[in-house]
């Protein structure tokens, strides 16, 4: 089985919804499964999770989750054109697997949500891609062969799946294009991961 790890941080549920659609995309590829994980909130006063396990939703991600994964998707709401601090804090703790090259050569993709259409989604996606590139991962985007990229009026970019949660759209509800593109992104990462895994097994 090819395992795709989906790690995200969410405050109001939109990023989690993108993660669930990406997981559905992973499941569409034969022999692939998705593992959903979140990260705990952090602040200037608290850099450690108050609880070892969240009350609701996915369990917290661990380094062992990353070691087992054949591919990775990262998701975060936009914070001033950047990923949210909890996800950055988690990534900052991955230097041990950077040193041994655990993630090198594995596919990765990113997704994000913002309150407004011009809220910094693309720059957020790019900031999430940088640590993955430093880990030696193979970045997977969404090509323009996906019809939704060409006519979306809400979220969706070549750099990754996105959602606009502003006043112009119903809060917390993904548009049809956003749903389709998040699902497609999950499928693309799974396809690449499965092909790479099969090639290494020969």
Explain this structure.
The chain is α/β, with parallel strands linked by helices and 202 residues long. The protein has one domain (2-201): Rossmann fold, CATH 3.40.50. The chain is built from 7 helices and 7 strands. The protein has helices at 14-27, 63-68, 85-92, 95-99, 121-134, 147-151, 176-201; strands spanning 2-8, 32-38, 71-79, 82-83, 107-114, 138-139, 161-164. Strands 1, 2, 3, 4, 5, 6 and 7 form a 7-stranded mixed beta sheet that branches. α5 (121-134) links the parallel β5 and β6 (138-139). α1 crosses α7. The radius of gyration is 16 Å and the shape is globular. The model has no long low-confidence stretch (mean pLDDT 92).
List keywords for this structure.
7 helices; 7-stranded mixed sheet; alpha/beta; 202 residues; globular; 39% helix; Rossmann fold
Q: In CATH, what is the homologous superfamily? A: Flavodoxin domain
Order of helices and strands: EHEHEEHHEHEHEH
The structure class reads: alpha/beta
Radius of gyration: 16 Å
- The CATH class is Alpha Beta
Shape verdict? globular
Question: Architecture, according to CATH?
Answer: 3-Layer(aba) Sandwich
- Based on DSSP secondary structure assignment, what is the total number of beta strands? 7
Give the N-terminus to C-terminus distance in angstroms.
16 Å
Question: In which range does the helix fraction lie?
Answer: 25-40%
The protein's oligomeric status is: single chain
The major sheet is characterized as: 7 strands, mixed
Number of domains: 1
Summed up, the helix count is 7
């Amino acid at each position: 089985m090819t395992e795709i790890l989906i790690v995200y941080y969410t405050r109001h549920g939109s990023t989690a919804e993108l993660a669930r659609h990406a997981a559905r995309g992973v499941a569409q590829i034969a022999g692939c499964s998705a593992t959903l994980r979140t990260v705990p909130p952090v602040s200037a006063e608290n850099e450690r999770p108050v609880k070892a396990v969240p009350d609701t939703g996915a369990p917290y991600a661990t380094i062992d989750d990353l070691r087992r994964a054949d591919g990775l998707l990262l998701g975060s709401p936009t914070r001033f054109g950047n990923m949210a601090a909890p996800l950055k804090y988690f990534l900052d703790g991955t230097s041990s697997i950077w040193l041994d090259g655990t993630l090198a050569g594995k596919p990765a993709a990113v997704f994000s949500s913002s309150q407004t259409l011009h809220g910094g989604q693309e720059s957020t996606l790019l900031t999430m891609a940088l640590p993955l590139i430093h880990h030696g991962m193979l970045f997977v985007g969404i090509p323009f062969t996906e019809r939704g990229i060409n006519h979306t009026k809400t979220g969706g970019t070549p750099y990754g799946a996105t959602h606009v949660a502003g006043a112009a759209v119903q809060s917390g509800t993904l548009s049809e294009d956003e749903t389709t593109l998040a699902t497609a992104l999950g499928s693309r990462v799974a396809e690449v991961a499965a092909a790479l895994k099969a090639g290494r097994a020969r």
